[in-house]
Amino acid sequence: MRFQELDISQLPRASKTSAWLNVGSRADGGNWRLPFLYVVGATPGSTLLVLGAVHGDEYEGVETIPEVFHRIAPEMLRGTLLMVPICNVPAYEAVLRSSPIDGLNLARVFPGHPNGTITQRIAYWITQKLIKPADFVIDLHSGGVTAEIPLLIGFTHSHDALGRRSRAGALAFGAPVVWEHPPPMPPGRSLSAATDLGVPAIYTEAAGGGYAYPADVSCFTAGVINVMKHLDMLDGHPEPQPITHHLSGDGDMDSVISTPAAGYFRSEVNLLDDVNTGQRLGTVRDPFGEVLAEITSESAGVVIMLRRVHRVHVGDNLAHVTRRLGG
Ligand SMILES: [Zn+2]
């Protein structure tokens, strides 16, 4: 099916289907197509959209979404569950965060463009056909190949009805780390497109590393089902796991501690460590072992991201520190 022909309101009630959505032509004469899984309940209710692999090197959503699909039958569902396990298919094929076709990061081009490059078209049709009719959006991310992030649920905590609904969904999801961000939300994300359309939205992070840890996939799977219960799409109450860290701060991973020197990065702290302002987080060394740069924290807080790949180029992101809520 061509993505632009998809009409969620016309999906047959009490159905469960997997399909391909053609989003643009390939140079080899074929089509770029997105995998699409949906379940329409026997009775009306909320519409939940779940996205995976918006970054092509993040695998937790790729594994979570078919698992959720397997567990949900139309007769137990109120409303509609829409899921795209691989959003940036060109990047996924190449094991890259961004698309090898146009170099674009899908999580920076929402709400996209209908006549743009392939990444912009993917963003556009996801926005128009899936985010717009949704009542809630979950975007499943992780650290990808180059970064390491704790298992967490994140959202922008605006103090309006939209922010409160996002926060309630995040707490229902139930990850050990909750990370809330003050508005405004940075542009270009699936979450910013959702916010602009008045749709509450949350996202996940996890260890990543080019590998989906079964415990992270289990948390994401339980989290999606918890949100479905929260939205009254399924019977029962959410069963979130206990929160170990409730954090607050800028979630924009484009503006974190980066390296002034190329070389070999060795971190000296662990994820979720408490650090002080000026504390050494690691070093960048040359091939002779000489320290080229000491990387220090610009603030006191909790380590929320660390670079995983040792080799670094100038300007590569190394670490991010955020605050404990109220701290
Ligand atoms: Zn991501």
Give a structural overview:
The protein has 327 residues and is α+β, with helices and mostly antiparallel strands. The protein folds into 2 domains: 3-248, Zn peptidases (Aminopeptidase, 3-Layer(aba) Sandwich), CATH 3.40.630; 257-324, OB fold (Dihydrolipoamide Acetyltransferase, E2P) (Beta Barrel). It has helices at 60-71, 89-93, 118-131, 161-173, 190-196, 214-230, and strands spanning 15-25, 31-40, 43-52, 78-84, 136-140, 147-148, 152-156, 177-181, 201-205, 245-248, 257-258, 263-267, 274-275, 280-285, 291-296, 301-307, 311-312, 317-324. Strands 1, 2, 3, 4, 5, 6, 7, 8, 9, 10, 11, 13, 16 and 18 form a 14-stranded mixed sheet that branches. A 4-stranded antiparallel sheet has the order 15-14-12-17, with no helix packed on it. Zinc ion binds at residues 54-55, 58, 141, 144.
How is the secondary structure organized here?
Blueprint lengths: L14 E11 L5 E10 L2 E10 L7 H12 L6 E7 L4 H5 L24 H14 L4 E5 L6 E2 L3 E5 L4 H13 L3 E5 L8 H7 L4 E5 L8 H17 L14 E4 L8 E2 L4 E5 L6 E2 L4 E6 L5 E6 L4 E7 L3 E2 L4 E8 L3
Parallel strand pairs: 3-4, 3-5, 5-9, 7-8, 8-10
Antiparallel strand pairs: 1-2, 2-4, 6-16, 7-9, 10-18, 11-18, 12-14, 12-17, 13-16, 14-15, 16-18
Zinc ion binds next to loops.
CATH class of the largest domain: Alpha Beta
**In sequence order, what are the helices and strands, one letter per element?**
EEEHEHHEEEHEHEHEEEEEEEEE
- The CATH architecture assignment of the largest domain turns out to be 3-Layer(aba) Sandwich
Class by alpha and beta content: alpha+beta
- Distance separating the two termini: 51 Å
How would a crystallographer describe the biggest sheet?
Answer: 14 strands, mixed
Which ranges are low-confidence, i.e. pLDDT below 50, for 5 or more consecutive residues? none
Total beta-strand segments: 18
**Could you tell me the strand content as a percent range?**
25-35%
In DSSP terms, counting alpha (H) and pi (I) runs of 4 or more, how many helices?
6
Q: Which ions and ligands are bound to the chains? A: zinc ion
> How many structural domains are formed by the residues?
2
According to CATH, the fold-level topology of the largest domain is Aminopeptidase
C-alpha Rg (nearest Å) = 20 Å
From the spread of the alpha carbons, the general shape counts as globular
Mean pLDDT: 96
Q: Give the helix proportion (percent range).
A: 10-25%
| CATH homolog superfamily of the largest domain | Zn peptidases
